[in-house]
Automatic annotation (TrEMBL):
This is Dimethylglycine dehydrogenase. Pfam families: DAO, FAO_M, GCV_T, GCV_T_C. It comes from Pocillopora damicornis (Cauliflower coral). Belongs to the GcvT family. SUPFAM superfamilies: Aminomethyltransferase beta-barrel domain, FAD-linked reductases, C-terminal domain, FAD/NAD(P)-binding domain, Folate-binding domain. Residues 788-867 form the Aminomethyltransferase C-terminal domain.
Amino acid sequence: MLLVMSSLLHSRTSWTPIYRAVLAVKYRKADSRVVSTGRIGWISSSQDSSKKKLSKQLKDDAEAVIIGGGVLGTSIAYHLAKAGMKDVILLEKSELTAGSTWHSVGVTSHYNPVVNMKPLTHYSMSLYKQLGQETGQDVGFHMCGSIRICTTPERLEEAKYQMQRHGWMKAPQRLITTEEVARLHPLLYVDDVLGALYFPEDGYIDPYSLTQALAKGARMYGAEIYMPAPVTGLNFRSDGRWDVKTPHGTIRAKHVVNAAGFWGREIGRMVGIELSLGVVHHQFLVTGPIPEVASLKKELPFMRDLEGSTYTRQEKQGILFGPYESADKMKMEEGWWDCVPEGFGKELFESDVDNISDYIINSMKRTPVLANAEITSTVSGPITYAPDAIPLLGPDAKVPNMWLALGTGYGIGLAGGIGKYLSDWMIDGEPPFDLIECEPGRYGNWASREYVLAKCRETYGLNNQIMHPKLERWAGRPVRTNGIYKRLCERGAQMGQRAGWEQPNWFAHSGDEPGFKPSFRRTNWFEPVGRECDLVLSKVGIIDLTPYGKFEVKGRDAADFLDRVFANELPKVGCSNINHMLTPKGKVYAEMTVTCLASDRYLLVTRSNTEFHDLRWLLANQRKNNYDIVITNITDDVACLGIAGPRSRDVLSKMTSSNLSDERFPYLAYHNLELEGIPVQASRFSLTGELGWELFHMKEHTADLYEALLAAGEEHGIGDFGTYALNSLRLEKGFRLWGFELLQFSSQMNTSTTAVEADLMSFVKLDKGVEFIGREALLKLKRDDCERVLCFMTVDTTDVDPEGNETVWNGKKVVGFTSSGSYSYQLNKSICFAYLPPPLTDLGSRVEVEMLGSRYPGVVVKYPLFDAEPFA
Ligand SMILES: Cc1cc2nc3c(=O)[nH]c(=O)nc-3n(C[C@H](O)[C@H](O)[C@H](O)COP(=O)(O)OP(=O)(O)OC[C@H]3O[C@@H](n4cnc5c(N)ncnc54)[C@H](O)[C@@H]3O)c2cc1C
């Protein structure tokens, strides 16, 4: 199949029939060339191989069974076996690479807008560099570098934004000039190029050989691979192990790993879980030899033309190029939600070159030698996407000992890191570092088919779009709302989405510019958020806190159990406290507000998005020691409104005859109240740090409660406030948060940080008389031995504020990073938490915070800055 590209420019219709003639089937048999790194191979079309006999008898017992022999499954098997796990078995239903892997472009890049995921790629690259030598199987790794070219000032700003977020990471990257772009890639049209982000250690790899090498390594270390061995059923046994059924027999296994790629949903269904995954098409084209490429002395770097939304890499003496289509143009297999068509295995989709003709033109403009090149192959294959294009990675939220490694849009680059990460977690019983973004439980039952597919489409379309901070993505929304959603919208709520819930970020009043106005700097919400902070500080505000995760723990062993999993003492009946669940290594697994409702009944409240993450830990620890308790997730039944500010007590007092005085209702106390006849469980706590209450109530009462609060508060000037104001206020009060950047506010603690590093030891009671999880490890940790510890800073900025993940410099040296930040409207200054080496955390230490290409002076100060309620 040959086509001279420039013909496209003259007669677009003249060439499409050629493709049609060749590709006039819905799914193409996979007999086209596998393009890869110097290896041109052929992969035969799939047949029903499940009935073929195995060359050896299937074992009937295993420590771990991995389902799927793609790049991910083999990497997990390799790492588990290498780490010493005995009886690791990989089951592949047809042959290795027979899903998405075999036709991948194989690009491995350090670029990742999710900062936490960068170590995965970094580890992959280190592994790929030496895997050939270790296993004797060449992997065809080309470290040609990669460039992301910027052709608009906003893109350049984005590149600077990405620079500021990587400095302390092992992710080599730098900004380069147009001249350097031209030197690295002499075949590019660069007249409109303003600069680029350059990753010298990026490259591409042959996915087929990589998978074979991982499989070879896995076998070398003792793992067994059976194929064709389709998993046909899974049964969770009463002894906590799994029966893994295949046509060749059943394996009893402690752990099961679902690495079945776009069949992942089908494996999930075998155990009654609906995984939030969609399948998108991705197309690329390959040219034959191009004289200008053939005569190059050095291999071209991988190149992304962000504005044109295309990429190219060298393929031998030709060029491989492909588009990332916009959401309205891209194609999906929506029907695969129900099942992958029987017989689809190593097939490809029919290429639809018409659909990507605009992108082909963009490619020819950016790389003019393409115009006269001959196209020798087109490939269109399936990629599995999670709604946010971030993998589902880790233990399943609901089913014990079931691990997921699915939904990797860029699985080749991530595979090494994912294999190591998952294997460490499976062996150690705790994650090696924080990757909460990948938490499989982030999509609950609320993630409907329509929502997931709409989000996958949207996310694929965002591939080369500018990723602004606080980016709001609208597809599929609203999907999880409470009784006041419409009312809040009418009152100007500018919604954000957390764990599917719609929650106001801020409120636009008349004269404000509503909507999401993308910017790397302060933008339209900046003034209104200041107004909301002022409202809470001077009068009283209401905030919708329904997205909190809420659990009730009840039963004879409730106190014993909670004392074991939490590091702080338990509160007395009628009181709450802030409490942390630690891992055995003393890292911070979760932060919750714990309230004692009765001696055998507790309410636990966590942030949104961590609902299933936290619940899983609670349930796993309950199972371990057979505690006599019942843990109930009440998140969907119980809503919460927060009221805060100096007038908040006056407002509530108008609605109840109960005594709300400091004596009767002190800070962190908890009482059942009736507010205008509505039963609420009221906690004297507000994350704003101001006088305030959190009012938990049955969700059917939210609308009435909200109206009653507004009515009672009218004379006190009550108004709404959103999460942006909450974030600024809580930072001023020095409240640390557990969380992650996808919550839009980065966090101060997670499973990458110990309680010592996160400055949480005032919440940890080493001498409470209970051997709580993590205690032993904490006894050995000393602050001064830590690489970095948490501190608080003010930063002198102009029109930009730290948000977390900014690089912190001391002279010419990178010393740390911010963990979250905001503008303080009380101080008229930027403020942030940061992780710095202990000697630099002395009060008055001076450092610099990198933002958008400039370094702003920061000084370590005492926190909290302000102290309205007693500091917790
Ligand atoms: C055109 C294209 C280009 C791409 N380019 C890149 C790129 O440049 N860089 C990059 O990083 N990523 C790229 N990707 C994505 C990458 O290919 C995938 O993320 C990766 O291959 C996923 O690997 P996997 O192991 O999860 O799944 P798969 O490769 O799909 O493997 C799943 C395996 O599970 C097996 N299986 C399924 N059900 C069962 C069962 N019941 N029992 C036993 N076995 C079962 C299947 O047979 C299959 O072999 C590209 C993808 C496409 C389609």
